[in-house]
Amino acid sequence: MTTTASNPSQTAPATGVPRKRSRATPAQRRNLFWGLVFTSPGIIGLLWFTAYPVLASIYYSFTSATMVRSPKWIGFTNYAALMKDPTWWQSLYNTFYYVVLSVPIGIVVALILALLLNLNIRGKSIYRVIFYLPAIVPLVASAVVWLYVFNPQFGVFNTILGWFGITGPGWLADPLWAMPAIIIFSTWGAGNLMIILLAGLQDVPQDLHDQAKVDGAGALRRFRHVSLPFLSPHLLFALVTGLIAGFQFFTPIFVLSNGTGGPAGSTTVSGLYLFQNAFQFFKVGYASAIAWVLFIIVALATLLVFRLVGRRVYYAGS
Amino acid sequence: MAVATSTGTAGVRAPNWWLKLVEKIVTHAALIVLSVMFLIPFFWMVSGSLKTGEDLNAFPVVWFPDTLTLENYVAGLQVFPFGRYLFNTLIICVFSMIGAVLSSSFVAYGLSRIEWRWRTPLFVILLSTLMVPFYVTMVPLFTMFRGLGWTNTYLPLIVPHFFGVPFFIFLLRQFFLSIPREMSESARLDGANELVIYWRIILPLAKPALAAVALFQFLASWNDLLGPLIYLSDADSYTLSLGLTFFRGEYATQFGPLMAASTVVVIPVIVVFFFAQRTFIQGITLTGVKG
Asked: Which residues contact A55 (CB under 8 A, 6 or more apart)?
C-alpha cells in the first residue's frame, strides 16, 4: 500500500503510460457540461426541497420552535416529552394496529382479485375496471361516501350484515370499531396492487404451468410452486410500499374522523398527531421529533422485512 | 400428453369438460359477487345524491327511491362552488403536470443518455431521496414557503414539480435506457446538440412513459389533500378535495348534499379514466418492479 501510494508520479512517466486521472478529453468535458445542464433542475430540487428541509427538521426536533417563536436549542427535551405523552403512545398503537392489519389484508385481497382476473374468462377488462375504480377515485370523495356507507342506522353496510342476521356495530362512532371500519375502507382501494400483481402473474411462463398440470399438480400446488416464486418480487414490493404508506396514512383518517382522530382518540394515527401538533398546536419542534421517531420506526420495519422476507424472494433472471 | 389423448376416449374427456364448466361458473360467480361489493359504495353515492330527505333517513334502507330529486345538487352546489374549485384544482393539476413531465424527463436524459462522471452517484442520491417521507420535510417546507410569502398561493403546490420528481426521474431513466444508442449517435454526427436530441428524438419516442408520468402527476395533484390543507387558507382558493373536507364538516350528517358533492368530484375522474385506461394500467405496470 505505502509503496503504491508514493509511486504513481514516478512510474507513470517511466512506463510512458499517461496518468490515470489525466485531463479530460474535449468529448468528456462536453459530456460533463451537458450532464450538469440536464441534471441541474434535479440537483437544485434535491438541495432545496429535500436536503434543506431534512436538515432543518432534524434541527427543529432539538428546539422549542413554534410557528411564531424562533427555534431555541433544548436538546432531547422533545424526545423525552414524547415518551411521557400518552396520546403519542396511543397514536403509535393505532398506527401499528392499522399497518399490521391493513397491509396483509390488502395484499391478500389484491392477490385473490389478480388470480381471478388471470384466468381465461370473458369480460376480464370490465371486471378489471370495476376493481380498479376505487383506487383512482379521489380519496377525500370516497371517504365521504363511506361515511354514509358506514352509517349505523341508514347506511348500506349494516343493512347487508342484517341480511345475514348480524347486528352491525356503530363503526365510525364506536371506538372499538372505528379502526376496523377504516381498514375495510382501505381494502376497498386494493386495485393498484391488483394491477401490479396481475402484471406479475402474466410473466409466469405458461409452459411451466402446463407441465405441472401434466404432472398432476392441483390448482393450489401449482400456485404454491409455480406462480408464487415468480410473484415473490412483486409481493415484497407490495409489502414494503404498503408498510411505508401505512405508516404515513393520513387523508382518510382526517376526513372520516373530521380531523379529530376520534372517537376517543381511537383513530389518532401518527400522521394525524404529527399534523395536529404542527398545524393546530403550532408546536414545530415537537412535531419534528414525532416525524423523526416515526421515520426511524419505518426504516427499522422496512429493514426487518427485507431481513425476514427478502432472502426468500426468487428473481427469475438470476 | 400424446398417450393421454390417444387412450382417453369421449368418456374420459366428458368429465373434464364438465369440470371446466363448473370452474367457469364458480369463477364468474366469485367475480360478480366481488364486483357488486366493489360497486355498492358508488351506487350508494349516486342514489343517495338523488334521494329525498325522507328516503335518505329511512329505515329500513331505501335501495331504489321512487322519487328522484336534484335538490341535493342545488343545495350542495350553493355552498360548494364546484366550478370555482374545479378551476383551482385544474390550475394546480395542469401546471404541476407540465413541470413534472418537463423537468423529470430533462433530468432523466442527463442521467441516462449522456455519459459523464457523476451520473451514477447522482442517480443513487436522487433515488435515495424516495425514502425520505413527506412528513419529515413537511414542517420545514411550510415555514420556508411562508417565509417566501407563498402561503395561500398555488406556488408551493406547483413550483417543486419544476425541479424534477425523483420517482418520475427513476421511471423515465429506465425507459430512456431502453432506447437504442444509435438513435442519438447518428443525430450527434449530423451536428445536433443534446438539447435537440432530447427534444426531437428522445421525447417523441418516450410518449407512452411521458403519458404515464403526466397522468400520475395529474391524479396526485387532483387527489392531494395534505398540500392544499397546509398551504391554502382562503376559501376562494380551495381545491375540490379541500373544499369537500370542509363541506363535510358543515354537513356532518346531511348525507344528501354530501353525496351530491362527492358525485360531482368523482365523476370527472371516472370519465378521464375510461378515456385513458390503457395509459393508466401501463403506468401502474411501469411502476411495478418491472423497471
From this structure: none
**HSE-up (13 A, CA, CB side) for residue B147:** 9
Residue from A169, A175, A140 nearest A155 by CA: A169
A263 cis-preceded (ω within 30 degrees of 0): yes
Rg over alpha carbons for chain A, rounded to the nearest Å, is: 27
Measured CA to CA, the distance from residue A295 to residue A289 in angstroms comes to 10
Of A294, A297, A278, A275, residue with least CA distance to A286: A278
Q: Which amino acid is at A7?
A: N
Residue B215 CB contacts under 8 Å (≥ 6 apart), including other chains: B276, B279, B280, B283
Cα B225 to Cα A206, B137, B219: the distances in Å are: 43, 16, 12
Tell me which chain A residues have a C-beta less than 8 angstroms from the C-beta of B122: 39, 42-43
d(CA A154, CA A168): 12
Q: Phi/psi of residue A60, each to 5°?
A: -55, -40
Partners of residue A63 on adjacent β-strands: A73
Classified as helix, coil or strand, A116 is: helix
Residues B276-285 pLDDT 10s: 777 777 766 6
Contact check, Cβ <8 Å, B269/A136: yes
Q: What is the pLDDT of residues A161-179, one digit of tens each?
A: 999 999 889 999 999 999 9
The three-state secondary structure class of A186 is: helix
Element (H, E) at A202: none
φ/ψ of A73, rounded to 5, equals -65, 125
Interatomic CA distance for residues B103 and B95, integer angstroms:
12
- Give CA–CA dist B219/A192, Å, rounded: 13
**ipTM entry:** 0.85
Minimal Cα–Cα distance from B74 to chain A, Å?
Answer: 18
B160 → closest Cβ in A49, A188, A295: A49
Total-model pTM: 0.87
Interacting residues of B248 by C-beta distance below 8 A, sequence separation 6+: A144, A147, A255, A258, B258
Cα A63–Cα A248–Cα B88 angle in degrees, nearest 5 = 95
Give the distance from residue A211's alpha carbon to the nearest chain B alpha carbon, in angstroms.
Answer: 10
Placement of cell 348525507 in the chain: B255
Q: Yes or no: say if B223 and A143 are a contact pair by the CB < 8 Å rule.
A: no
From the list A35, A56, A154, the residue facing B57 with the nearest CB is A154
